[in-house]
Amino acid sequence: MRPHEIADMLRAPDSGELLKEASSVRDAVFGREVFQRGVVEFGNQCRKDCLYCGLRMGNAGLRRYVLGDESVVRAAGCVVRAGMGTVVLQSGEEGRGAVRRIGRLVREIKMLGDVSVTLCLGDHDEDAYRYWRDCGADRYLLKVETFDEELHRRCRPGQSVRERVERVRLLRRLGYETGSGLITGLPGMTPEILANDILELTALSLDMIAVGPFVPHPDTPLRRAAAGSMEESLRALALLRILNPLANIPATSALDALAPDGREQGLSAGANVVMPSVTPESVRREYFLYPGKNGSTETVADAVRALRLRLRKAGYQPSPARGASPAYFK
Length: 330
Description:
Oligomer: single chain
Mean pLDDT: 96
Distance between the termini: 22 Å
Largest sheet: 8 strands, parallel
Helix content: 40-55%
Strand content: 5-15%
């Protein structure tokens, strides 16, 4: 597809056929199984100052935390016992001092059972990525958010698209199942920018793709901006599914932030993954990326059960598999 064709689909008066096609593509590859990734958000300290993110360094109102090793491994154990095939270690972006600790956590988690470990830890150098891979990390998610240089520069001060994309390519070369993604509806984003983002992301030939709407956070410079459109985000997800039939694509928590059935809508648009938080209740609310993220007061076990019930009611089957992308073996 050409950029103007994608932009036209993003603007079209009706998306029914697009979503239906994306769902058919997903079913042909993955069936109605939905892979589960338990996310341990082990710290909310960050050295970056991205304008849209509640964890940004400039947010002085956020109570910062870092879970100890024992707490992280215990949370990962909840993932294994709950029958989820992947543990995701996620945090704000920390400095070089955390590298050895992450490697140690990866090794300990891999000893808990037959699980994959995904890292979502931001920008680091080749030595760190290589070390974590050697320790047993299977996957790495590094979202670009937008490929538009000017919009990227505004939303992610001091950071460049080129450097971010080079890191994504480096992760592939190191043997990770590699993922990246977009935020739809960022202030200043147009259908033309999003169309180009969709094509640029597809050109990276990724194993994992994440896309979700912008949700304004009250303690960021973008607090007065309008939220991204659920409809536009679903269309982008559907287009990415059609263009990347073998990729794992989550129905993100940001969709739930805009609608009570947001994840179900994401699955209907072609997603095949859910990523429930298994962060301990004592700090879960402090991993406050945006309103609607980790706002539940349920226990981890109850939240996982509730999400699985939602999946089954919507006609999907929660899968215990590790769920590697078929694209990774091509």
